[in-house]
Amino acid sequence: MTLWNGSYPFYPGPNAYFPFDTTRAVIVTIFLSMLATSIIILPGIRGRGRLFWFLRLVLGLFMGAVILTVQFTRDWETGWVQANTSYKSFSPAQVNADIGLHIGLAGVNLPLVQGPLVMRQINETIDYNEHFPWNFGADYDHSYSQGLQKGLPSPILYVAEKFTVQSPCAVHRQYRIAGHYASAMLWLAFCTWLVSILLFSMSILLYGGHMLLLTATLTFFSLIFFSTARNTLKCPIQFGSVSLRTDYGESFWLTLGAGLLCLLLGLGIVILNSLQPEKLKLIFSLDKSSKEEMWDKSCLPAEPSCSAQDELMVPLGELCHVTATKL
């Protein structure tokens, strides 16, 4: 048993590794609430239009949720390694820990989780999750200096030092600029997605398909911008005999999937509009609604038909003649 239970009394506590991203949870909850609200009114739609309407709803919400969520995620590029390394500076303690590297559009996230042998070495639970931002208004080097002052574990500081401005690895500028451009492309893609939803609701199908194609193009540009930083020459992140290697993460593949979905849907709408517009109207429940409207108008007892009016109409001269005969 050591003084202060093996921790530093004059520094703030570590950021625990939270089980999920709260921003992602909020966005997903909003879109799921919209989906649940729409499902409630689903029984009020008749016939095959119910299925088509539900598919359009699910696909549209999925594309919007992905494009908006990946703006705030930190797993565009991820990597993990388990290594035996020194725990903190000026300490002989060696720990076995899982060291992670999560790169997003707005910064880098560095988790450090205890390994299976850590409790035998030090009397402390290792569970860190430090974020070092590089977005607009943020100073990465200042965040790194604060980490030094807090006395963060050596593995976190070692990986974070690779992304500083003055690091010989020279990857900070590439990742920062690539993240800014990728984020701008995704915000534009989210705006074009909203415009496409508005056009589809107004039954302007062709231009809605064009906006989906533009949304797909913008998402592909965001992936290209991020890939330029991913392919730059990087310094090796070595922990003894093992090295920390990264690969494209979940957000990258989700963005790629959303872009491909927008591309396929946009091409399908444009092709159907030029080749078989009736089927396209059937998918968007346009022809059926018009037929139902005509049927409802024919069933209304509004005005007498033309044949009935013809039967009731009598020439004025004949009417006077009949009247005179009766008198």
From TrEMBL:
Compartmental location: Membrane
Give the record's GO CC terms. Answer: endoplasmic reticulum membrane
Instruction: Give the record's membrane topology.
Output: Multi-pass membrane protein
> Entry's Pfam families?
DuoxA
Q: What is its main location?
A: membrane
GO process annotations (BP): protein transport
UniProt keyword terms in alphabetical order: Glycoprotein, Membrane, Transmembrane, Transmembrane helix
Membrane-crossing ranges are: 25-45, 52-72, 184-205, 212-232, 252-272
InterPro entries for this protein: Dual_oxidase_maturation_fac (IPR018469)
Concerning its family, UniProt says: Belongs to the DUOXA family.
Q: What name does UniProt use for this protein?
A: DOXA1 factor
Specify the species.
Answer: Zosterops lateralis melanops
